[in-house]
Structure formats: C-alpha cells, structure tokens
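Figure 6 in text form: structure in, sequence out.
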C-alpha cells in the first residue's frame, strides 16, 4: 500500500510537479492549497506525512501546525519556509524555529524534490518501506538498460538480503554503463534467479541505484540487529553482515553529508556494534581468522569501529554509552578528508611532500568543523574525531597533545586506526598485525600502555604474547587472566 502524503501549498504549479515526482516514487499524494482544507483532509484521512508551506492562507501553516500537534501529536509534519532577507531576523521562520514549534522537519526554499524525498525517507520505518512497495504476482521481465556507472553501487551477491518483496530494482553489470535489471521493486525475492547468475554465469556482484542507498541501509540495519541478537548465528556471519551495512551507510554519508536522518541511522548502527561486541563471546576467534584486506575507506572505518569498541570492552569502566559513542565517532573519524584535495586524499602518507603532509594533518580539524554546530552529535564524538591522531608521547597531530590531555577514547581510536592500517596496507591477519605492532617499539610510545594491553586481550591470553614480545615497561597485564 502506497504511503499517503498531504501536500499543502498555494502554488498549484509546484503542487502538481510535487505530486508527479512523489507518485513516481510510489507515494500517494493528496493536494490542497489552503490551511482550512488541510485540516479537513486530516480529519478524513490518515497520512504518513504532511508537507506544508508556512505561507498558505485560510489558516496559516503555523495555525495548522498547532492544530496537528494538539489533535494528531504523532503526525509527521515537514514545514516549508521561504526565508525573506528583507524580514527582521527575529521575524524569520527558520527551519530551527519551526522544529521548536513542533515540526518534525523543516526545509527552506529553494530546494530540490530530492531533498524533500530524503526528509520523508528519514522517517519511514522498515514496515513502512515494505508495506509501500507494490507486490507483483509474477517476476518482472529481465530488462537490459543503459545507465551511467556512477548512478550505481554494488554489493556481493552472497551478501544481499531482502524482505519477501525486494524494495528496489536489482541489476547485474554487463559492461561499462550497461546493465540488466533482474529484479523489479515489488518482485518476490527470487533466490533461484540470483543463483542462476551466480552459479551459471559467475556473477559476483549485484547493483542497485545510489538513490536507493537509504532503503538498503535502513532494511539491512534492521535485519543485522535481528541476526546479532540470534544466539544460533555465528560471530563471523554477524561481523560480515554488520560490515556490509556499515560500509553502505558510510558510502551514503560521504555522498549526502551529515544530514539528521543519516546521523540517526549511524546511531542505530552504533547500537548494533554494541550488541555485537557485548554479547558475542566468539569474536576473538573471528578476529584471528579475519582476512578482508579491502583498502577502501569504508572498510577501514568499519574495522576501526570494530577494534576500538572491542578494546573498550576490556576496560572495567566500559558501558553502552562509551561503546556506542566511540562507534559513532569511528564511523565518522575520517570525515574531514572530504575537504582535502582528492590528489592528497588518495596518497599514502609516506608518499606526500611537506606541503601535502601539512594539509593532510588538518583533516581532524576539518572533520570537527563539519560537525561542530551539529546538536545531534555530542561533544565526546567531536573530541574523538579531533584527537584521533594525537599520540600519548606528544608526537601526534594536529595539536601535539600528550598524556592525560588526550581523551582516553581518542587514544583507543588512534591505536585501532594504526592497527587497521597494518591489516589493510600490509595484508596481515589481525594476530599477525598485532605481532607487527608490538615489534615496532618506537611506535608503542604513541599509546597508553594499558590500551595496548587491552588490544592484546581482544585476541589471546596476554601470557602467550609475553613469551614472544616484551610489553611496555609500565605494563600491568595480569598473567593468565582469562580473555573476554
């Protein structure tokens, strides 16, 4: 069943354009041009969301908003405002002011319909998404299409999960800019059709359009949370499933920016990271065998998240709040690299000249700048992002902080970040990377020794490592203590 939306605006031309756009996205749109008719429509029908211009007449948008909050307090309301530079600042109804007045979301003209689409999608539950897809009684025909490659994203065919009806079109790639649509939105999920391509034609990846990233992340985050809570599923499958959804979430973040709905999705994934780390006792074995050396930034961020939170788990003071907070910071820890010139961002640090290195070392500051005024992200997350390259001995950047002046969580992320670079850049399994890390004595001074000990505890009994490598001189590892 299509999700119903009520669109209220006095501009009839804009209304009909909005109707056409959203009905192509499988919404059902009701149009009214004034506030009084909007109230009547709300009385007669239930809507997933109301999209309303504040400047409608016969009851203003603000009056209708107050009516909705009094009579339908759970109703999603997206207010449209038109900021007039001639108005006094105090009189302007900015998006922030409208939210304080009770709007679920607010957006200022001019904007693209895609921006409005993002706000609507941000408030869809998985149930909303599944129920709004029109079910097809038979599989749609396979269709060859010509579409630019940059419109698509991919997922391994073995890691594609779906509800009974697929939520969006699924493709396979023939060659550059050429694809075959093998499943249509609303088709019953056909494992047989996927197996045909996997086994008979050696297809490794499926493709879907980037515009559907939100749906993919939303559904797979929900599904991963269910699987992580299932005691009958092994840790390895849980780690890979969470990796899949986290990497696509980060891809969406780097493409669309730090929108409120994206941050909310990040928090949901952080909760799943907590559940994975806290409740699964076989992860140390998974980590020992882990061998994904994909160097891309999304895999890197996921692994930093995984190992940082695993280290925190070893501390007595660990809590759900600290683990979830650190997980969110890890996912965004390199967001500042978006502001670097691509020619710098793609270089390895050892290949940079002095000027490039100086600019590279500003990415923690750039990251903080991008989220500094975002009230949805707490100060601890911001400080971790700013300090994730600071070293315990004062040799880090951007401010050469040392010792207790560095947030402990930041130093944990610093260690995990460098540890993951060994795994990815040198293609070593985690236990091999741990031995490499411990052998680099000069670099161990970058971290509080207790944090190094806690990384060791993630994998093995510390005594087994002590036989091969000396620990830092101020080590307080308790021999034979059982590893969590």
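Output sequence:
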């Amino acid at each position: 069943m299509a999700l119903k939306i009520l669109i209220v605006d006095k501009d009839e031309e804009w209304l009909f354009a909005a109707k056409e756009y959203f009905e192509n996205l499988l919404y059902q749109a009701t149009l009214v041009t004034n506030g009084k008719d909007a109230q009547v429509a709300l009385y007669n029908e239930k809507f997933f969301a109301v999209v309303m211009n504040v400047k409608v007449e016969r009851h203003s948008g603000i009056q209708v908003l107050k009516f909705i909050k009094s009579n339908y307090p759970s109703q999603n309301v997206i207010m449209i405002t038109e900021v007039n530079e001639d108005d006094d600042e105090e009189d302007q109804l900015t998006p922030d002011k409208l939210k304080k007045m009770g709007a679920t979301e607010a957006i200022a003209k001019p904007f693209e319909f895609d921006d409005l689409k993002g706000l609507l999608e941000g408030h869809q539950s998985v149930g909303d998404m599944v129920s709004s897809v029109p079910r097809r009684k038979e599989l749609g025909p396979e269709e060859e299409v010509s579409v630019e490659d940059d419109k698509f994203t991919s997922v391994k065919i073995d890691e594609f999960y779906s509800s009974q009806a697929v939520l969006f079109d699924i493709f396979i790639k023939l060659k550059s800019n050429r694809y075959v649509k093998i499943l249509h939105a609303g088709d019953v999920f056909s494992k047989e059709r996927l197996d045909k391509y996997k086994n008979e034609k050696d297809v490794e990846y499926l493709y879907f359009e980037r515009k559907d990233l939100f749906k993919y992340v939303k559904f797979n985050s929900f599904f991963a949370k269910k699987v992580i809570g299932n005691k009958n599923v092994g840790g390895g499958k849980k780690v890979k499933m969470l990796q899949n959804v986290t990497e696509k979430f980060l891809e969406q973040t780097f493409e669309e920016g730090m929108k409120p709905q994206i941050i909310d999705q990040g928090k949901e994934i952080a909760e799943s990271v907590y559940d994975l780390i806290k409740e699964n006792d076989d992860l140390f074995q998974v980590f020992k065998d882990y061998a994904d050396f994909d160097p891309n930034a999304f895999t890197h961020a996921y692994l930093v998240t995984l190992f940082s939170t695993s280290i925190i788990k070893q501390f007595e003071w660990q809590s759900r709040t600290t683990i979830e907070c650190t997980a969110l910071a890890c996912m965004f820890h390199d967001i500042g690299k978006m502001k670097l010139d691509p020619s710098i961002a793609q270089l390895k640090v050892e290949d940079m000249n002095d000027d490039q290195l100086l600019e590279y070392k500003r990415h923690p500051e750039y990251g903080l700048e991008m989220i500094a005024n975002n009230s949805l992200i707490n100060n601890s997350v911001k400080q971790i992002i700013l300090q994730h390259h600071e070293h315990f001995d004062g040799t880090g950047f951007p401010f050469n902080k040392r010792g207790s002046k560095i947030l402990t969580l930041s130093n944990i992320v610093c260690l995990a970040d460098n540890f993951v670079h060994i795994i990815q850049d040198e293609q070593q399994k985690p236990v091999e990377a741990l031995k490499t890390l411990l052998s680099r004595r000069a670099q161990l001074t970058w971290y509080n020794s207790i944090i190094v000990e806690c990384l060791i505890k993630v994998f093995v009994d510390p005594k087994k490592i002590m036989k091969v490598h000396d620990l830092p001189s101020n080590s307080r590892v308790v021999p034979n203590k059982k590893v969590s």
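Caption detail: The domain at 3-123 is CATH 3.40.50.2300 (Rossmann fold).
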